[in-house]
Design a protein that fits this description.
This protein is an all-alpha fold. It has one domain. The protein contains seven helices and no strands. α4 packs antiparallel against α5, α5 crosses α6 and α6 runs antiparallel to α7. The radius of gyration is 20 Å and the shape is elongated. The relative contact order is 0.17.
């Protein structure tokens, strides 16, 4: 009986991985880029962003300290609060800027998840498919980075 050597998969070429990353970025922006034209959502965006004077005033050292010492809507998440402060500093209360940040964070998360899954499992196409299943519900809200 002849012994067969174990079948080893060749690692995917870098060009294929880069191409998949580019497609994932394109799909993410195609689907969620349209939120750049949306307004804030009245569900919880007022509490977290535009009706919160400590956040909407922008970023400063005292406000960063405030973010670590206070809760918003009963939740303590200082990094998210600081991110909103930075958004307000950069974009003011223009929802397009806040949505841009959310889509950018989501895009980074999609690509990183793909790379980690591909590295952990060695499965290129399954890893790419799974990246489309990331939590998408919070992207269209102004506080979208809360869900990432």
């Amino acid at each position: 009986m002849a012994k067969h050597a174990p079948v080893q998969r060749a690692p995917p070429q870098t060009a294929v991985i880069v191409a998949i990353c580019a497609v994932l970025v394109g799909i993410t922006w195609f689907v969620f880029g349209q939120t750049l034209h949306h307004q804030f959502v009245t569900y919880d965006d007022p509490q977290y962003v535009y009706a919160n004077p400590d956040v909407s005033a922008g970023i400063s050292l005292p406000r960063i300290s405030w973010a670590f010492a206070h809760t918003i809507a009963g939740n303590w998440h200082p990094l998210t609060t600081i991110s909103h402060m930075l958004d307000c500093q950069l974009y003011g209360l223009d929802p397009a800027g806040h949505h841009f940040t959310n889509v950018l964070f989501h895009t980074i998360a999609v690509v990183l998840l793909f790379l980690v899954l591909q590295q952990m499992t060695g499965s290129l196409w399954r890893s790419a498919f799974c990246c489309g299943l990331i939590c998408n519900s919070s992207i269209a809200r102004g506080i979208g980075c809360l869900g990432l």
